[in-house]
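<instruction>
Derive structure tokens from the sequence

<record> Sequence and structure tokens follow
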Amino acid sequence: MRFSVEPSPAGGYFVRLQGADAPVSRHDTEEEAEAAAAAYRRGAEDNRTGELVALRDGGEVLVRPVEPEDKPLFAAGWERFGRESRYMRFMGAKPRLTTSELAFFTEIDHVDHEALGALDPESGDGLGVARYLRDTDRPHAAEAAVAVIDAMQGRGLGGALLRRLCLRAADNGIRVFTAGLLTTNHSMLRLFEKLGQVTVTGRSGPETYIDVELQVADSPTMELALRSAATGHVRRT
């Protein structure tokens, strides 16, 4: 990955990733921007660790928690989502990610807001991410979502990420996932149905809202995967 630092028209400095339309982050001073670019370079060089997960077609990915230095992975990965995938994920047209959104997606506490990313073991490129955000009014519940680049869809990656996210959520006291989906997004609904009992809680135009009762306690294999990921051990599953 190649980065550059340039002045922002509104003041401050942008860090840009070569090949991405939008800047990765904005900083008040050039020194801060250069330090961020250096951190992104180091992060890109260290994208080879995590839980090694076998997909149903025999391929493998690395899964690990998202960190602030992963902003370039999100910016680069965004370019690998087709228009329909973006529409399905955000339930509307969205041409690019903003620096504020990149910060929100990566600067997380891993308790009330968790995100697990999948990487290519060879290139270190980002392939997909699953996240939850705890509901402040219902602390036992969290909104969940998953996104997988077009080239990796249909290989079981979304399900693998959601199962691990489910376990992380349970470890942090979350027992229900909520989600808002386009009614036509049948593949995402099937993924949630594999996690537990799905209840439709409402509909609004083309959108359907659901609750998913998580049932991780019934799966020793999933529990073992959680403990492995939580301790940083790399294992094949």
The chain is about 30% helix and 30% strand. Confidence is low (pLDDT under 50) at residues 218-237. The first strand starts at residue 3 and ends at 7. Residues 13 and 27 are 5 Å apart (CA to CA).
